[in-house]
Amino acid sequence: MPHFHKRPKIALVGAGQIGGIMALLCAQKQLGDIVLLDIPRMEGQAKGKALDISEGRAIDGYDAEIIGTSNYDDVAGADVVIVTAGVPRKPGMSRDDLIGINLSIVKDVGSNLKRVCPDAFVIVITNPLDAMVYAMQQVTGFPTNKVCGMAGVLDSARLRYFLADALDVSVANVQALTLGGHGDTMVPVLSSAAVGGVPITELIDSDTLDAIMKRTRKAGGEIVGLLGNGSAFFSPAAAAVQMAASYLHDDKAVLPAAAHLNGEYGYNGFYLGVPTVIGAGGIEKVLEVPLNAGEKDALDTSAAAVQKLVGSLDI
User: Fold this and answer.
1) Which of 16, 93, 177, 310 could connect to 89 by a Cys-Cys bridge, CB 3.0–4.6 Å?
2) Mind listing the pLDDT tens digit for each residue in 252-285?
3) What is the pTM of this model?
4) With contact defined as beta carbons under 8 Å apart, do 94 and 307 qualify?
5) What is the spatial distance between Cα 258 and Cα 147, in angstroms, rounded to a whole number?
């Protein structure tokens, strides 16, 4: 009698642009069965996207079960939950402008997850990211290593793309990361950035690097402005799925994420973007990269901004 392994269960809360792309990516990568959940008013969108992706199974050759729903009972026992639910930015808005409306959404999502999938690894994408992931952990009461935020993978990918583009080299050969809050105070760490082992500062002049850092901080807003209605969805979806895959496969990939800090970098008791190791234990480790004085000052500023936002939350 053959022994069939149960596929992991991945719940995607929010069936908007990011949710739909994540469902497709999870299916194509055969990460597990997928539940695409949204509020009752949007259940048709969740079901429609699930059906559309299911009908592509024969084309792409994946066998994941994909359902759309508005019932949290369908999420029961999920191994991974990725939360995009919330209101996206409109042109001229900062991520912090969303705090009131999105906090109420995160509270509702968190209380449901606590009931139906208490052992899940939760990845939050909802903005303002660092404050919302803190709220999610507080509402669920899940261990801090099982709740994190997706921002650093995306911000670092944007930085790596801009650097690769400036040098006309493969992005795979560019090592660079961003730290801090997911917003205008994020800190691109150029002191340790390199291309094929060569320090980036030896390859690109300081004015160009300054322009790239500025563009990285404003990258999300650049896309919001171009789209005119909504915010980025392809790259955020890919970033969250990369994090989920590292957890499900116990890859122990080094990925920047909004992680709960317990003294690392001199901060304690809140979430901030830092390099982490993601494996079967969730956020298994926070890595401390050396920073120059300017970068540490910038990180302190970013951390203070996040702490202020967290302090304003009514949880």
Assistant:
1) 93
2) 999 999 999 999 999 999 999 999 999 999 999 9
3) 0.95
4) no
5) 9
